[in-house]
Amino acid sequence: MASSLTSLVNDDSRYQKSFQLFLERSSEHQCMQDFIHNKLPDILASIGNGKSHLNVIGVGSGAGEIDLEMLSELRQKHPGVTVDNEVVEPSSQQLHNYRVSVSQKKELDYITFTWNKMTASEFEAHWKEKKMTKKADFIHMIQMLYYVKDPAATISFFQSLLDKNGKLLIILVSGESGWGKLWRTYRHQLCNPDISQCVTTEDIKNILDSKGVRYQNYELPSQMDITECFTEGDEKGELLLDFLTEVLNFSKTASPELKAGVLELLRHPECSVESNGKVIFNNNLGVIVMEQLT
Asked: pTM to 2 decimals?
């Protein structure tokens, strides 16, 4: 990462603002919801081995909107079960929002929530320290492997927690998305070397293939309107640019050459299409589903 630049994750309030704008400008949650309602039920059908109690771990759960939709599908596939749900989320604001959502939904009384305000690596250390032997039936890691130092080790740890017939679900940006092109081109200038900020499902599949680990994968078409990024001084455009580059105040702190290069690349046909005066970025996601290692 260029020395003059600061990672967006260092400023949680600006990160949350840019993330909310990203959700408004993109079809991210809609494409995840399509997957959850249409494909996930079949994936969840085989978990649990007929048990009346299921253990779930959500890693990087955010405010829980997607978690709660998945838990609803789980309930429909396995009516009558009780669920122990470990929530792992480092942002106190997001965790608070998740707890508020849960408190307003009386129909969730079959779920026991355990709130872990920590990162994935802190959770792993905590789990090992406590010598926990509990196994999980369903673990999901949605859009969070960017924030760990070693994705392969993190996946390996959580896969080791799976019970028989358990499933580990990973969602990241697809290697075929505009993000993939942006990161392949500007990895050294933009990506924070302390985390795996520029990881795509392509990288994860390569890791799993090299280890001979079996998985299923799905592509989720998604897009994002980034038109405002091209209006100099536009406040929302600058927030979106921060989110796209993961750099705090990118427009103000990047060199003119880097800023011009990134803006040019964002318009490149491998990143975006231009239609009716709008620039629509390819925000495709990839899903990887893994089982217990045998």
From this structure: 0.91
104 DSSP β-pair partners? none
Residue 282 identity (one-letter amino acid)? N
Mapped onto helix, strand or coil, the DSSP state of residue 23 is helix
Report the C-alpha gap between 245 and 58 in whole angstroms.
Answer: 26
Structure tokens at 272: 């975006």
Beta bridge partners of 136: 162
Would you say 291 and 166 are in contact if contact means Cβ atoms under 8 Å apart? yes
CA 184/CA 168 separation, integer angstroms: 27
* Cβ 247 vs Cβ 190: under 8 Å: yes
List of E strands, 89-192 = 111-116, 136-142, 162-173
Dihedrals phi, psi of 246, to nearest 5 degrees: 60, 30
Q: Note the pLDDT tens digit of each residue in 137-182.
A: 999 999 999 989 999 999 999 999 999 999 999 999 999 999 999 9
